[in-house]
Design a protein that fits this description.
Elements lengths: L1 E6 L9 H15 L1 E7 L10 H15 L6 E6 L5 H13 L5 E4 L11 H10 L3 E4 L14 H10 L5 E4 L5 H7 L6 E4 L9 H9 L4 E2 L9 H9 L5 H22 L5
Parallel strand pairs: 1-2, 2-3, 3-4, 4-5, 5-6, 6-7, 7-8
Length: 260
Protein backbone atom coordinates (compact mmCIF):
# COMPACT_ATOMS: atom_id res chain seq x y z
CA UNK A 1 0.00 0.00 0.00
CA UNK A 2 1.15 3.54 -0.81
CA UNK A 3 1.21 6.80 1.15
CA UNK A 4 1.11 9.89 -1.10
CA UNK A 5 2.34 13.24 0.27
CA UNK A 6 1.29 15.40 -2.69
CA UNK A 7 -2.26 15.66 -4.05
CA UNK A 8 -4.71 18.39 -5.08
CA UNK A 9 -8.39 18.95 -5.84
CA UNK A 10 -7.74 21.44 -8.65
CA UNK A 11 -8.15 19.79 -12.05
CA UNK A 12 -10.57 17.09 -10.91
CA UNK A 13 -14.11 17.20 -12.30
CA UNK A 14 -16.81 18.25 -9.86
CA UNK A 15 -18.57 21.38 -8.66
CA UNK A 16 -17.75 20.89 -4.98
CA UNK A 17 -14.85 19.63 -2.90
CA UNK A 18 -16.97 16.63 -1.87
CA UNK A 19 -17.65 15.63 -5.50
CA UNK A 20 -14.01 15.98 -6.47
CA UNK A 21 -12.87 14.02 -3.44
CA UNK A 22 -15.18 11.13 -4.33
CA UNK A 23 -13.63 10.93 -7.80
CA UNK A 24 -10.10 11.12 -6.39
CA UNK A 25 -10.76 8.37 -3.84
CA UNK A 26 -12.14 6.09 -6.57
CA UNK A 27 -8.86 6.44 -8.48
CA UNK A 28 -6.83 6.03 -5.30
CA UNK A 29 -8.65 2.78 -4.55
CA UNK A 30 -7.75 1.37 -7.98
CA UNK A 31 -4.09 2.33 -7.60
CA UNK A 32 -3.46 1.02 -4.08
CA UNK A 33 -3.21 4.40 -2.35
CA UNK A 34 -3.72 3.80 1.36
CA UNK A 35 -3.24 7.39 2.57
CA UNK A 36 -3.12 10.63 0.58
CA UNK A 37 -2.32 14.18 1.62
CA UNK A 38 -4.17 17.10 0.02
CA UNK A 39 -3.35 20.79 -0.09
CA UNK A 40 -4.67 24.00 -1.66
CA UNK A 41 -8.26 24.39 -2.84
CA UNK A 42 -10.44 24.07 -5.91
CA UNK A 43 -8.23 26.43 -7.93
CA UNK A 44 -4.54 27.30 -7.70
CA UNK A 45 -3.79 30.76 -6.27
CA UNK A 46 -0.17 31.88 -6.70
CA UNK A 47 -0.15 34.65 -4.08
CA UNK A 48 -3.30 34.27 -1.96
CA UNK A 49 -4.44 37.00 0.39
CA UNK A 50 -5.69 36.02 3.88
CA UNK A 51 -9.34 35.58 2.90
CA UNK A 52 -8.35 33.41 -0.07
CA UNK A 53 -6.06 31.29 2.11
CA UNK A 54 -9.00 30.55 4.37
CA UNK A 55 -11.22 29.61 1.39
CA UNK A 56 -8.52 27.33 0.01
CA UNK A 57 -8.08 25.54 3.31
CA UNK A 58 -11.83 25.34 3.88
CA UNK A 59 -12.15 23.45 0.58
CA UNK A 60 -9.61 20.87 1.73
CA UNK A 61 -11.28 20.57 5.13
CA UNK A 62 -14.55 19.90 3.33
CA UNK A 63 -12.91 17.22 1.18
CA UNK A 64 -11.47 15.50 4.24
CA UNK A 65 -14.73 15.52 6.20
CA UNK A 66 -15.85 12.00 5.21
CA UNK A 67 -12.41 10.45 4.65
CA UNK A 68 -10.41 10.94 7.84
CA UNK A 69 -9.44 7.28 7.79
CA UNK A 70 -7.66 7.70 4.43
CA UNK A 71 -7.07 11.36 3.62
CA UNK A 72 -4.93 13.94 5.39
CA UNK A 73 -4.54 17.67 4.85
CA UNK A 74 -1.67 20.14 4.61
CA UNK A 75 -2.55 23.74 5.45
CA UNK A 76 -1.74 26.18 2.63
CA UNK A 77 0.12 29.26 3.90
CA UNK A 78 1.50 32.47 2.39
CA UNK A 79 4.52 33.82 4.31
CA UNK A 80 3.78 37.35 3.06
CA UNK A 81 0.84 37.35 5.48
CA UNK A 82 2.49 36.22 8.69
CA UNK A 83 -0.34 36.71 11.16
CA UNK A 84 -2.99 35.26 8.86
CA UNK A 85 -0.79 32.26 8.13
CA UNK A 86 -0.13 31.67 11.82
CA UNK A 87 -3.87 31.85 12.44
CA UNK A 88 -4.54 29.32 9.70
CA UNK A 89 -1.85 27.07 11.14
CA UNK A 90 -3.58 27.18 14.51
CA UNK A 91 -7.06 26.69 13.04
CA UNK A 92 -6.21 23.84 10.68
CA UNK A 93 -3.35 22.02 12.41
CA UNK A 94 -3.17 22.90 16.12
CA UNK A 95 -6.97 22.79 16.51
CA UNK A 96 -7.97 21.01 13.31
CA UNK A 97 -7.34 17.75 11.49
CA UNK A 98 -4.50 18.82 9.19
CA UNK A 99 -1.05 17.33 9.74
CA UNK A 100 1.43 19.54 7.89
CA UNK A 101 2.10 22.70 5.87
CA UNK A 102 2.16 23.41 2.13
CA UNK A 103 4.16 26.35 0.74
CA UNK A 104 4.10 27.20 -2.95
CA UNK A 105 5.36 30.17 -4.99
CA UNK A 106 4.36 33.36 -3.17
CA UNK A 107 7.77 33.77 -1.47
CA UNK A 108 11.13 32.10 -2.00
CA UNK A 109 11.60 29.85 0.98
CA UNK A 110 15.04 31.23 1.83
CA UNK A 111 13.22 34.39 3.01
CA UNK A 112 13.17 35.14 6.74
CA UNK A 113 9.42 35.61 6.37
CA UNK A 114 9.14 31.83 6.78
CA UNK A 115 10.92 31.71 10.13
CA UNK A 116 7.91 32.20 12.46
CA UNK A 117 5.88 29.65 10.49
CA UNK A 118 8.66 27.07 10.66
CA UNK A 119 9.18 27.68 14.38
CA UNK A 120 5.51 26.98 15.09
CA UNK A 121 5.56 23.94 12.81
CA UNK A 122 8.37 22.46 14.91
CA UNK A 123 6.28 22.93 18.06
CA UNK A 124 3.37 21.14 16.40
CA UNK A 125 5.55 18.33 14.94
CA UNK A 126 4.21 19.33 11.52
CA UNK A 127 6.35 18.69 8.41
CA UNK A 128 6.57 21.37 5.70
CA UNK A 129 6.12 20.49 2.02
CA UNK A 130 7.88 23.17 -0.05
CA UNK A 131 7.46 23.39 -3.82
CA UNK A 132 10.83 23.66 -5.58
CA UNK A 133 11.80 23.90 -9.22
CA UNK A 134 14.75 24.77 -11.43
CA UNK A 135 13.36 26.20 -14.69
CA UNK A 136 15.50 26.69 -17.78
CA UNK A 137 13.29 29.66 -18.68
CA UNK A 138 13.58 31.17 -15.20
CA UNK A 139 11.50 30.68 -12.09
CA UNK A 140 8.56 32.78 -11.02
CA UNK A 141 9.62 35.71 -8.77
CA UNK A 142 8.63 33.88 -5.58
CA UNK A 143 9.38 30.33 -6.75
CA UNK A 144 11.95 28.42 -4.70
CA UNK A 145 14.85 26.32 -5.86
CA UNK A 146 16.45 23.53 -3.86
CA UNK A 147 19.23 25.97 -2.93
CA UNK A 148 16.61 28.14 -1.21
CA UNK A 149 15.33 25.12 0.67
CA UNK A 150 18.84 24.10 1.73
CA UNK A 151 19.34 27.58 3.19
CA UNK A 152 16.05 27.41 5.11
CA UNK A 153 16.87 23.94 6.40
CA UNK A 154 20.22 25.18 7.75
CA UNK A 155 18.41 27.88 9.75
CA UNK A 156 15.92 25.39 11.20
CA UNK A 157 17.73 22.10 11.91
CA UNK A 158 14.87 20.84 14.11
CA UNK A 159 12.24 21.18 11.36
CA UNK A 160 11.22 18.42 8.94
CA UNK A 161 11.11 19.62 5.34
CA UNK A 162 9.81 17.80 2.28
CA UNK A 163 11.25 18.97 -1.03
CA UNK A 164 8.42 19.06 -3.55
CA UNK A 165 9.35 17.62 -6.95
CA UNK A 166 13.01 17.13 -5.93
CA UNK A 167 13.57 20.47 -7.64
CA UNK A 168 12.09 19.39 -10.97
CA UNK A 169 15.59 19.26 -12.45
CA UNK A 170 16.49 16.49 -10.04
CA UNK A 171 20.15 16.34 -11.03
CA UNK A 172 20.54 19.81 -9.53
CA UNK A 173 18.02 19.22 -6.76
CA UNK A 174 19.53 16.08 -5.30
CA UNK A 175 23.03 17.52 -5.30
CA UNK A 176 21.91 20.72 -3.59
CA UNK A 177 20.25 18.79 -0.75
CA UNK A 178 22.83 16.08 -0.22
CA UNK A 179 23.93 17.48 3.14
CA UNK A 180 20.53 18.75 4.32
CA UNK A 181 19.70 15.91 6.65
CA UNK A 182 16.36 17.39 7.74
CA UNK A 183 15.09 17.44 4.15
CA UNK A 184 13.52 14.49 2.35
CA UNK A 185 12.74 14.62 -1.36
CA UNK A 186 9.47 13.57 -2.95
CA UNK A 187 9.10 11.90 -6.30
CA UNK A 188 6.09 13.62 -7.86
CA UNK A 189 5.34 16.15 -10.52
CA UNK A 190 7.66 15.42 -13.41
CA UNK A 191 7.91 12.75 -16.08
CA UNK A 192 9.17 9.30 -15.04
CA UNK A 193 12.82 9.28 -16.05
CA UNK A 194 15.23 6.36 -15.87
CA UNK A 195 17.82 6.88 -13.16
CA UNK A 196 16.05 9.42 -10.94
CA UNK A 197 15.07 7.15 -8.06
CA UNK A 198 18.37 5.28 -8.29
CA UNK A 199 20.29 8.55 -7.97
CA UNK A 200 18.11 9.75 -5.10
CA UNK A 201 18.77 6.54 -3.16
CA UNK A 202 22.47 6.67 -3.98
CA UNK A 203 22.93 10.34 -3.06
CA UNK A 204 20.59 10.67 -0.07
CA UNK A 205 19.77 7.13 1.06
CA UNK A 206 16.40 5.45 0.63
CA UNK A 207 15.28 6.81 4.01
CA UNK A 208 15.28 10.36 2.59
CA UNK A 209 13.00 9.67 -0.42
CA UNK A 210 9.18 9.61 -0.20
CA UNK A 211 6.43 9.08 -2.73
CA UNK A 212 4.42 11.99 -4.07
CA UNK A 213 2.20 12.00 -7.13
CA UNK A 214 1.07 15.64 -7.63
CA UNK A 215 -2.25 14.13 -8.74
CA UNK A 216 -4.25 15.12 -10.79
CA UNK A 217 -1.57 17.10 -12.60
CA UNK A 218 0.22 13.79 -12.99
CA UNK A 219 -1.28 10.32 -13.03
CA UNK A 220 -0.78 7.81 -10.26
CA UNK A 221 0.37 5.25 -12.83
CA UNK A 222 3.20 7.39 -14.21
CA UNK A 223 4.40 8.44 -10.77
CA UNK A 224 4.24 5.00 -9.17
CA UNK A 225 6.21 3.65 -12.13
CA UNK A 226 9.18 5.79 -11.11
CA UNK A 227 9.53 3.73 -7.96
CA UNK A 228 8.21 0.35 -9.10
CA UNK A 229 10.51 0.33 -12.14
CA UNK A 230 13.62 1.57 -10.35
CA UNK A 231 16.64 -0.73 -10.02
CA UNK A 232 16.73 -0.67 -6.23
CA UNK A 233 15.98 -3.25 -3.55
CA UNK A 234 12.38 -4.19 -2.82
CA UNK A 235 12.67 -3.06 0.79
CA UNK A 236 13.83 0.35 -0.47
CA UNK A 237 10.74 0.61 -2.68
CA UNK A 238 8.58 -0.13 0.36
CA UNK A 239 10.36 2.59 2.30
CA UNK A 240 9.76 5.13 -0.45
CA UNK A 241 6.17 4.17 -1.20
CA UNK A 242 4.97 4.06 2.41
CA UNK A 243 7.27 3.56 5.37
CA UNK A 244 9.25 6.81 5.23
CA UNK A 245 6.22 9.10 5.07
CA UNK A 246 4.45 7.04 7.69
CA UNK A 247 7.43 7.60 9.98
CA UNK A 248 7.50 11.35 9.30
CA UNK A 249 3.80 11.72 10.09
CA UNK A 250 3.73 9.33 13.04
CA UNK A 251 4.48 11.96 15.76
CA UNK A 252 1.74 14.36 14.72
CA UNK A 253 -0.75 11.59 13.94
CA UNK A 254 -0.24 10.05 17.37
CA UNK A 255 -0.50 13.49 19.00
CA UNK A 256 -3.90 13.88 17.32
CA UNK A 257 -5.02 10.39 18.28
CA UNK A 258 -5.00 9.22 14.65
CA UNK A 259 -3.85 5.87 13.29
CA UNK A 260 -0.29 6.07 11.87
Amino acid sequence: MIWDIHGHLSGIAGATATERMARLMAVADRMGIERLCLSMGLTFEFDPKPDELRRQNDAVLGALAHHHDRALGLVYLNPKHTQASLEELERCVAHGPMVGIKLWVAVRCSSELLDPLVARAVELKAPLLQHTWHKVTGNLPGESTTDDLAELARRHPQAQFICGHSGGDWLLGLQALRHSRNVVVETGGFDPTVGYVEMAVRELGAERVIFGSDVPGRSYASQISKVRGAEIEEFEKRMILRDNLRGILRPILEAKGLRP
